[in-house]
């Protein structure tokens, strides 16, 4: 494990959130889809279940996507992460739950709006990545027909393709066929 469990989980959740409108159209277009996403990553706390909440999560998704897109420019990425931390008024404290007995950080009150809690957690996970000198693990899929993002958690940072559309396999098959046709 490269990072703490909650950091890796939150980075994965951020990637899935960003990709929810980059692959196969809008995947978080309604409140049941948002609930399914939230439940799949164990998000707790207040849920308003209204259109404003869904729209605020869509705005957060766009901000996170911009951070991923600028990961090659550390100064810009840091500025965006700092802005997100400030906008969410992140205030860390240690906690644990029966379903997650390891100590981990919460960064916003369970009573704060959903986007604020998600944004604070995701910004802090990105801050962990930056502090450890691993910002280059944030990548956009290398397949020419894919805009999905990925968090490369491989040991040697060799991941290039997302896992949303079988991109790696498609690219390897295409390269194999190209080599075979040149014989």
Automatic annotation (TrEMBL):
Domain of life per record: Bacteria
SUPFAM superfamilies in the cross-refs: Jann2411-like
One Pfam family this sequence matches: zf-CGNR
Domain Zinc finger CGNR: 137-180
Cleaved signal peptide residues: none
Protein name as it appears in the record: Zinc finger CGNR domain-containing protein
Source species: Mycolicibacterium psychrotolerans
